[in-house]
Amino acid sequence: MSTDTPPSAPAESAAERYLAVQRSDDFAGLRRALRGFVFPMTVAFFLWYALYVILSAYARDFMGTKLFGSNINVALVFGLLQFVSTFLIAWLYSRYADRRLDPIADRIRAEIGEVRHDDGLRG
Fold first, then answer.
1. What is the reported pTM?
2. What CA–CA distance (Å, rounded) separates 114 from 123?
């Protein structure tokens, strides 16, 4: 007589859980919300950067216009504004993710049994 118990029905594998999540409405909404921010912001930043490059190449007189003192011109200000816009986009994304993306992601994570820790690690 054996003391081994018969194997129970196999638990749903992690791959099956993740595929189910991928097919879920919550996940589709999360992807849609992410794309709703990322794609327009990427296009806007690319156009802003392209404007800077095109003006630098073809509107040298305008870009060379002195604004303050003898060394501060339009080109320098536009160049510095590239950094400002990069940080602005990062800040806007952080706020957007906190409000729109993270709640959906947390709900999905809870459904598949992962716990979100304050340090960002999953367990």
1. 0.73
2. 6
